[in-house]
């Protein structure tokens, strides 16, 4: 049973193309956007440097070498990106102001594994302002912004991440975060569950000092519930993914804007009139469908849950099985958190030039491994865009090798990530400061009152004015005037 929850782990981190494959790439367009200063999705690499960051001796201006990033000299560019992100993350900046007096995370040693973007940097620096020490690795081999990682390393954060890591690099970076002499983490902030898995596998004794885990993704939460069910969860865990402020905002609104961004930057396609199938109508699927419908696409939905399926029908989408539309659609998007949703059989039946991509956290949804066979030819078109060509000349366009499209191929809206990051920070504060016995070795949801607090911190940005209940109204509804305004079972 112990093996069940991590059965897909090996599959999740396919290695980069070999050196031989890379020599055949176009000379003008590099394999990855490793040294780009402008954005996560630049198509060119300003450096011919092929040296692995692991082989470089780098120090920041204070003489520290406790980090591993692509190029520490990019720090100034990263700092500017972080400063832009701060303008759109009002709640985290508000937490910093309040932390000038008390330090609710004083003594916290947080080891983190998330997407390393400008938004994450604002969160990390906020945790630092709240009193925590942090060590950080990336939860995805393509989503790191190299210049941001450099800026964090320059300001003293031990960060181990760069865009385009191999599978071996990925686990090495996580290990460097955890296994360091004289530093024992007492909190985990995870996105996808890989950091938690690594500590369980390699350093189970560490859990004796760890107060709790905060997990952000569907995939990671699923793993935690499996551990809990098997009786192997030895510390309390906070399921941030299913808190209202994560699921109803980040998953929905973030994907509604970033799906179009990721597709445009990689393929320059026009959406009007295109036939699209979106697999899964959870919050991520709902966001993707709404954006594509608004652009004039014809959208089909596949779904296993009758409730989500009925929502798709009521929203005006045609509910189908993937087999029914696979020959005619122009774009296939997975949003399920499941595995093998798009199989080799589906890929074989797709029409020429069909675009295939994934919006779920894990790269298990599309069976990319089945495409790495001798009869199929892979051509790198630009960073994160591959043509996979069949013997008869048919080709599909595969984005980010089936990994998370928006963070691999574009960027995501900062404001909506402010909501998620604030939720993560409050979950860490709650678990770290909880008296012994409040939380048992189980998975918990954030209290509704805390969700409402996170939302209220973001309202001033819109010059929004909340109505207050009168005493009579509060009594009539049976509510406290200050909330929570919805019961815990409200969805």
UniProtKB/TrEMBL annotation:
It comes from Rhinopomastus cyanomelas. Residues 251-412 form the S-adenosyl-L-homocysteine hydrolase NAD binding domain. It comes from the Eukaryota. This is Adenosylhomocysteinase. PANTHER family: ADENOSYLHOMOCYSTEINASE (PTHR23420), ADENOSYLHOMOCYSTEINASE 3 (PTHR23420:SF2). One of its GO terms (molecular function) is adenosylhomocysteinase activity. The lineage of its organism: Eukaryota, Metazoa, Chordata, Craniata, Vertebrata. The gene is Ahcyl2. Its cofactor is NAD(+). Keywords: Hydrolase, NAD, One-carbon metabolism.
